[in-house]
Amino acid sequence: DAKTTQPPSMDCAEGRAANLPCNHSTISGNEYVYWYRQIHSQGPQYIIHGLKNNETNEMASLIITEDRKSSTLILPHATLRDTAVYYCIVRPYSGNTPLVFGKGTRLSVIA
Amino acid sequence: KAGVTQTPRYLIKTRGQQVTLSCSPISGHRSVSWYQQTPGQGLQFLFEYFSETQRNKGNFPGRFSGRQFSNSRSEMNVSTLELGDSALYLCASSLELAGVGNDEQFFGPGTRLTVL
Fold first, then answer.
1. Confidence of residue B36 (pLDDT cuts 50, 70, 90)
2. Beta bridge partners of B49
3. A69: region left, alpha or beta (phi > 0 left; psi from -120 to 50 alpha)
4. Site from B4, B31, B43, B111 to mutate, A interface, most A CB atoms within 10 angstroms
5. Closest approach of B58 to chain A, Cα-based (Å)
6. Could you read off the pLDDT of B88-112 as tens digits, one per residue?
């Protein structure tokens, strides 16, 4: 079972920052937070992952709270092409464990 | 660098038949994972192959099987198809085993299987 809770849907105006929350209150010390997204009719796409420090790459930023019980994925300037289902996944970084996808958040970027 | 490719993209079968789906990972990737996606159950892990060996398996019946070849290409087979097997089957490749080192997974476009 997925170990995360995400809102089922969100809207964001084009050009504005999209902030997608994720609750993972039972996260363990050796578990990372991963984010993937799935654009309609495509396979999921890796976005970012982190342990406890904030992370940033060319696609997004990941902000993890100090107690690690929740995180926020930030798309700084959302475009229409960012419309997708976003999945927050908690998984150990060592040990052979697969990705467990929950229902994710359907983000709609509106012009 | 070419992405993950899956063939065929679409397939229609009837109940009781069997089907084989193919996945070619990104060059240099050694791990291939398979997922099933349905509207009701979402994305569910089927199995992972690494160095021609199944390393992990999800909660699916034995009708679902797979294999990996020495060039890392993988196939999955579903025997005795049921209506409920209609789904999008996704393949993902990564450099290393899931959860080990550099394990970012790159997904293919999927094969959409319809069972009539």
1. very high
2. B32, B54
3. alpha
4. B43
5. 9
6. 999 999 987 766 665 789 999 999 9
